[in-house]
Amino acid sequence: METAVSVSEETVSWRYGVLLSIALVPFAPYIFGVLTLDWGFNELSAIFFVAAFAVGFTARLRVRETTVAYLKGMDTMLSAALMVPVHMLLHVVVPSDSGQAALTMPIRAPLADLLGFPRAVAVMAYQTGAPTLDRLIPTNGALLAMLLAAGVPYPRWLRFAVPGALLVVLVGLIGMAVALAIS
What we know:
With 183 residues, the chain is mostly helical. It contains 9 helices and no strands.
């Protein structure tokens, strides 16, 4: 039995390898910076910003074309990043509500402006994601202390709390959709 393999007419040139390398190179200094220099999101953003323009110039794009491509790529990614799951995942490593707000809102508010979303949508995504997960994650010391004091095993708590958390997320998403619709 013969199998057909579809190969595009365009072959991969050395330039595509260089472009891929430029896109991957920032990970190494960022990991080094995080582990040894206490780097954070500002440094990550700066490294990938420079890499994005290096990719554009290597691809022989003009500054304007590179900028437009960069913003277009951000537009598709950032609209999804404003939603609840990002806050929920971030809340696992930053379980403090105020800490997460201090970390994300200076980024989320300007991104909402850039994407044409009302800032209220960014705030609603935070309010829906972070506190909702607070009731579920085992890194929340207060939750575990209360469960221990009440004699409720964590798996039993999850079976009880997850449906309610999903309902809260659904209501939050509906609220964000309404806010987007009336803006």
